Each structure stands twice: as C-alpha cells, then as structure tokens.
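Q: What does the assembled structure look like for these inputs?
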Amino acid sequence: MRRINRVCQLLGIEYPIIMGGMSWAGTPKLAAAVSNAGGLGIIGSGPMKAEHLKKAIDEIKTLTDKPFGVNIILVSPYADELVDVVIEEKVPVVTFGAGNPSKYTAKLKEAGIKVIPVVASENMAKMMERIGADAVIAEGMESGGHIGEVTTIVLVNAVCRAVSIPVIAAGGIADGRAMAAMFALGAEGIQMGTRFIATYEADTHENFKKLIIKSGIRDTVVTGATLGHPARVIETKFAKKIRELEVENLQQAEELLVGSLRKAVVDGNVDEGSFMAGQCVGLISEIKHVEEVIKDIMKEFDMAVERLNQEHAKLKNAMSEVNEYVK
Amino acid sequence: MRRINRVCQLLGIEYPIIMGGMSWAGTPKLAAAVSNAGGLGIIGSGPMKAEHLKKAIDEIKTLTDKPFGVNIILVSPYADELVDVVIEEKVPVVTFGAGNPSKYTAKLKEAGIKVIPVVASENMAKMMERIGADAVIAEGMESGGHIGEVTTIVLVNAVCRAVSIPVIAAGGIADGRAMAAMFALGAEGIQMGTRFIATYEADTHENFKKLIIKSGIRDTVVTGATLGHPARVIETKFAKKIRELEVENLQQAEELLVGSLRKAVVDGNVDEGSFMAGQCVGLISEIKHVEEVIKDIMKEFDMAVERLNQEHAKLKNAMSEVNEYVK
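A:
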C-alpha cells in the first residue's frame, strides 16, 4: 500500500501546507484560494461573531469544494458560539489559537471535525494528544502576530520528540527550504501566514503587502509584551511609538493597539495600524498567486531535499567511522 | 574526485561541527576534546589578555595535534593584542564575535589563518564575504549568551541565500535533527555552545551542568536588553532580579552583571551568576563525553536525512503535479 503524508491524509489535501489563523486577513477568498491550490485554507474567525462566521463559511462554500478550516481564538468572547457554528456548518477542520481548547475537543470530535491546536510547549502538545487532538501546530516566536517565547527550531524539535500525532511547524516559514528543515526535525506539515498575505488573492490592503515585500529579516519588532499580549509586527513608526509608550504610558499603548490590526489589514493605515507579520518578511520579495506560492514551495522543498542528500553524501567517510563507534 | 564537505575541507576536520566561542567555558581542555573528537575546538578568549591567551594556546597544543581555533570578541579592549597572539602562535582558525572584524582580516589571512566571523544579517554576511572571510557563522537569537534579534531558521536561510562561502549555523542546535534542518536550509556546518558545556570534559562548574540538564525549552530569558547587551541565560532567581532591575534601577542591574558569567561558569554561584545558555537546554537531558556528543549527532543527522527522504517519497504523487505546473 502506498504510504501518504499523514497531514495530507488527515485533512484530505494534496500538499501538507496550511494557512495560519489570521484575524481580518484570513478571508474566505484567500482561504478558498489556498484550498483550491491543494493546501488547507483557514478562515480567521478572530474578530467575528457567530453570524459573521456563518456568512464567511457560506461564502467559502461557494468558492471551493475542497476541505477548509476555521481558526478560533480561545480568548474570543464568542468562542462558544463560534464552535457551535463550525459544528452546524460541518466545517472539516478547526485550528485553535494558543491556549487550552479542552472544553471543545470532545464535541468537535463527535461531529467528525478535525481538531488542531497551536501549542507553545511540548507539555501542552502531550496534553493535546491525550485529549484527542488530531495534530498540533508548533509555532515559534519568529511568527507574525501573537507569539510565545521559544523559536521554531527548538519548539518543533521538542514537540516532535514528545508526541506521536503529526506536528505542523509554523513560525518563520515562507519557502521550501524551511519546509525541508522542518521535515528534517520531524514535522509532517507547515503552516504559513505572512507568505499568504503577500499574494494577489489576499484581500489585505496593498500597503500591507508592500510593507512585507520591502521589509528585511530584521524589520519586525514585538509590541504588547509588557501588556501581556506580545505580538510581532513590522517595525513602523507606529510600532516604535507603541514600544516607547509601553515604557512611559501603558494605558495609552493599550488604547492605541485596540483596533490597530483591522486598520493595517483593511485600511492599510500605516500611521495607526499593527502590521502583524513574521521575521520571514525578509525572505518574501514578490507578490505571487497562491497557487504559485504552493507549487514553488513544493519545488524548492524537492531541491532542498536533493541538496541535503548531496551534502550528506559528502560526509559518508566520516559516517562510516561513526557507525563503528561503540559507546 | 571525491567531494568533501566544504567546512571539513576548509578547517581540516572530520565532522562539520564547531564549538561556540564561550568566555570562561571555552577552556583549552574542552576545546582539545572537541578537536580530538573530530570537530573544531575553540578557545574563548573573551576575558583574556594576551598573556592568558598565549598560555591557553600553549596548553591546547599539549592536548591535541588536531586543528583548533580561538574566538575573539571585538569589544574586548585587548582585541588587537589577541589577534597578534593568534598570528604569532599560528592558530589555524579565528572566529569573531558579532561585529565587524575588517581591520584584522587582511593580516590574519596573510598569516594563513582562516577567518570566520559571526554575522547577524545577510548584509553583514555579504560584506564579510567581500573582505575575504572563509566562512560565516549565522547565529540565531535562541543561542546562549549575547544575541541578536533574528531566529536561526530565518537568519540561516537568508544568509545562505546571500553568500557563496560556507555558512555555519548556530543557535538552538544541540542534536542531529537540528543539524539536518540547518543543512536543508543550505548550511554546511553547525556551531554549538551549550551542548558542549554539558559534557564531562567541560571545566564548567557542576551547578551549571545540572541547570542545563534540568531546564526546559522555556526556561531561558534575555537579560541586559535595556542595557544594550542582550544575553540569553537560564532563568534563575538572579536572572529574574536583573530583569526587574532593568525596569527599576538600570545602574544596579549593570553592576550586578559585571563578573556574573565567571561566577556561573567557574564558581557555580547560583545566586549571583549568569548561566548563559541557549533555548536548546530543553533538548539536552544527559551529560555526555564530547566524543559521544559528536558521534550521536552524526548518527542522528543520518537518521534525520533518512526520515526526511521517506517523508519526501510520500509526497511524490503531489510532486509530479508540481513539476507539470508552468508559471
């Protein structure tokens, strides 16, 4: 029997590439494009109430026949209702933002919905495996938006060692080299957010896309850390101001942050918007079509594996000595 | 002609694994053990004057016939003299801490010494290539000790795309899976610090080694960021106190940090020491002999490449569609 990648099998998709849960940017149109291109598109329900999510699901169903998912943020005041909507609408997959989705897992599973939480530690990953998660997303702190403290290479490594369910790697991934690197650590899928914003199919404002293209790997900063909700954003004047206010006037920083993601994604407001994006902005130099993004990544993944094998072969003599070594 | 790994060829070593530049912990004994095991041992000249380095080099020459290196920190007030010592002593390799070693490169190269600077951006990597560096070390912010802001997976990816000289990956690497991941990104060698401290051959105090073994991936923090010299350390009570003082009393934080690395490495002083270590502490669960560390990494590298090939094969059907895709 032909073996198939477990993430593809689990989700009924062609390429083990899933879209990050993105508030405002995770629209039905973009999610449908990812699903139609063979990945798993994800509607970001972050700012939505039940009725908005219902409408978004109706919309994506007109745009794709392929599997798609919904991301639910556990701190949403509407989380209970949103979970009910995905069950009613028979959404194939739910990803959860960081936190503990235990209270929802059983009823989602009963409804035949795949449950994939984001985890920030190997212990949380083990717990999620125990309560029946189908896979976990290990997301490093180089990712855009709300982040933890551990970087992708360390977190993915630790999580892959801790659980048997498939691990989907996220954070700092925008190309096929990084995909190959994550698979070398033991991941069986990747999640990307920023890379999908820089596409023609993204409804995200042009100003946001332009900022991604022109930013380097050192051009993101973390805002909100002192407020207890650290988020990685592109370093605009606004982001610098927020960081200053976090030292001088926390209250004002908090006030300015409210609604700032919407201002970035929807309005392209460079003076008042939080342009949430990962460090991989520095690896993204071109707006592409979603299909091109996915196919290019798979091609590059292929090339990276090939190059790794060549480099591995160059160490063959050394390896033969290693294999003779007895502890 | 048999092709050989470029880092091994450049440095005359068997495995492309080099020791991080570590003040106090980078002793001749540990460096000799790494060189004798087929890697490249590095004497950390951080706190040394010329006479100390001369003595350390004399010592390592009695302990190994293999190539070794010296790490020089560019902010050292003795940097000029230290460079003169390595030239006089015909040390085979010099690695530099982050910064711009341009003023030393020409005379080191004339003396036949390999020059390998640490870089924190792809632009710095390009500049180092231009001035004749033999390789660069791309070190992510998950590493122990003094750090930048970009994580390993993003930095190594960007640097590998920017230069043609070999790239040595550092930061968060303690095992063969991570080595394979770095090679998938295009690196041709790895550098490790923390993993070599947790060995029998390290002269580092037992308390330090114990802290590494018991710490998890989330147990490091960054101190000194507000003082302009961020360093990753294990989160002890002392580290927490420093972080509080960085908000309340910068002057006192600075005073307490002076000499704190020595107190950790040499004295094992858990109340006043800075236990500099990378996030990979959470992936290190055992004190090993240096030879065992290196051989285990190479074995695991081998296994990781094998597993990656298996996973790659599972995506073969999907790949054939990709290859038919024309942009």
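The two ends of chain A are 38 Å apart (CA to CA).
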